[in-house]
Amino acid sequence: MIPSLRKSYNEQFTAEKYAAFIQSMATAAGEAPAFKVAETPVFVPAALTKQLVETSEAIIDVITQPDFKAKSEASFPPCMKVPGENEHAHFVIIDFAVCKNAAGELQPQLIELQGFPSLYAFQELMARGFRHHFQIPDTVNNYFNGYNDNSYLQLLKEIIVGPYNPEEVVLLEVKPHEQKTRIDFYYTQKILGIPVVCITDLEQRGNQLYYKNTLIKRIYNRVIFDDLQKQSAYLPAHVSLFQDFDVEWITHPNWFYRISKFTLPYIQSEFVPESWFLHTKELPADLENYVLKPLFSFAGQGVVIDVTPEDIAGITDPENWILQRKVAYAPAIETPDGPAYCEIRMMYLWKDGTPRPQLVHNLARLSKSKMIGVTKDKSHTWVGGTCAFFEQ
Q: What range does the domain containing 64 cover?
């Protein structure tokens, strides 16, 4: 999106450099990514950077309002609330589509947000790999607010490990070694020293949790609880996490629901598509220009792109669905085999004792098909998970 940098990058790219880049990540983490990593980062011009940052901060204003917890009480699916919730999420991620306005200028449009961690360790490794193997200039940066590799990893350690010994903190997931994002787990383990643990390996003693006879004082939570509920009957015997354990959650599971699609109707901005709960308004006449999203799903599951009245008629719980005006992704990234669409994720960390989360890093996805996602373009090149470098 910065023409001079795009041209230079495309010209210097070779398959050999890309292979070395992938191998460097495999060496650092102990395994290559199980998902497609794009052949290129995204170069974001200053005007779009400004819009992304300002819109993200306006969204943070919404979730830091004193009444946000009260408003978001209805965000939980039945029986999914976990005891021991803390005062705020430690991770907030905000996803934008890169679009164009009527004048043909690039602009962001909000897609989704979550109070949940996503590849926070791996994105440092990836961005560093891009800088090393493809000579990214100093005029752009993958970090915000003055962070660099060292200070970012130090902040990540302070938030995840905190005052505890690393062996007293676990990265918790369901079948972590089968997840496509497991490279992030392994790299997190390497840089922080915390074990990667499956829920089936936890041991309960009273109101305390143990892993290999070590008392767990803090959980770095990567479990999506509605996914856990769906899989629970097929897992070996395991501890129920819906108990009031003497353990700290980073971040607490409830924030996955509080900061989610549920929040979209409360955000007003020219860069936030109109959204509302399905039961609160009449259907628009131009229903084909909206996307139907279930509140309680993840990874795009259940989303209806081309909505029909029949789709609406089949819904029995309209309070658990939202309609969101469609956005038109711009084919903004020039690649050697055709333009790609782009999403950019703004990644926040929220340290205890501070009034609001801080923007620190990013993630991006490139696609050449209608649905953005790192697993949907298997036949294409220059698509997949990546990161952005911002002109600031």
A: 1-78+92-148+333-392
